[in-house]
Amino acid sequence: MKTSELWKPSNLDFIQNPYPSYHKIRESTPIFKATTGDYVVMSYDLVRQVLHDPSCLTGSRVEWVNKLQGYASNRNIDFDATSAIISSMLIQINPPDHTELRSLLAKNWPTKDLLSAMAQQLSTDIAGKLPKQFNLVTAIAKKLPMQMICHVLGFPSDQGERHLNDGLRLVQLLGPYLSFRDLLQTQKAAERLLDSFQNFYDTVDPNKPANLSAKIKQAYRNNGRKQDEAVTLLIFLFIAGFETTSTLLSQCLLLLLNNKALLGKMDQPSLPAFVSEVLRLHSPVQITGRKTSQEMVLGGVHLPVGSILTLCVGAANRDPKHFKNPDALDISRDSKQHLSFGYGIHHCLGSQMAQIEAIEMLKIMIPILGQFNLTGPIKWENKLTIRSVREINVTRNG
Amino acid sequence: MKHQDEVTSLVKTLIAKELKVAPDSIGEDVSFHDLGLDSVNSLFLLGDLEQKLNLDIDPLSLYDNPTVSSFSNFISTLISENI
User: What is the ipTM of this complex?
Assistant: First the structure.
């Protein structure tokens, strides 16, 4: 079978367990040209090299959505809200604009202590209200990150709750394997988000910097940046704040539910290493993209200017050349070198926040997790880019 | 049940609409890429086809079946599997 035929990024069976196929492909070649015309990069060294290379730019998804917007306007279909939101995704913005925005956010980001206290409080509240039967994904894994980012932004949690599914729609735009129906639903989600966040932004008082939104509003006023771009930046932070973190929390809980022996051995000092290892094994972001701005040779393959690179982070994290016995969960290994948060200038701004949430949630959940049992099959979302779980149904004993 | 000929003719009509050319000018064994379809207008094509035939079509199927004849064959099979 040809390498490109093993790569089935839009197939649900592939998405549910892509790792055996990743191994087969990586063993035959670290980089190959897919039928879609992009070059898929599978090995740890090459993925990291591209992420570190300043000539490999981000932003090709924005270009694609803008093209979509142009074609669609001929058919009287409106993708304006979609375009506005994806254009504000920091991961799609190149320097120098990226540098400026990133430093603005870093300067105003909440401290580690504040985030830990917040995560502890919210996790306690959530764990205290769990019913007898529930879906772990919506009751815990999505709820905690959503409430966290709402607190950080000062955005009302009850409104955030209404946008739980909208975030997933938008973040999937970063992936190239979408159907037209996906795009129409994304646009509806984008309009709802824009509407809510515009109304919210109008109520934010920049003179009382009680939260990140107020600090952003103040900075945008002082810098003379466009206010509507501040609104879409808040939407980006909202989405980025819970969509991938919820996947991390789901995977942590799922692993422990399926391995009660491991659950029994988990103590607080091992949590950071456990979370890091879950990130390596099950990267919420399975693929990310770059575009070449000059000719280059990568893994022996000549890439012309403007080549689209699909970086398979999920495969890089299980490269046996970098991680011994890569499919095994081993909390004693140095897993911090995983690429799940990216590498280089776009390294995830919320990486610390995500790990704090996972650790604080596990501290609260581990003592009671033994009482829960899975009641049905795990259901996955049908997209590889952000590989997420939709349903982990459990019931509580006694 | 739709014959493959009908599917072929529908696919050609929809591509012609995207590319603003006459349906007869579209070669059945020329790749979509060479015909001038790109990743955006091929999505519109799939969207129209999904609506007209009431089907779910894998967005990558156009790449796996990159000509009018192979793609129509794929769609005909999909229709017969769905009945």
Answer: 0.84
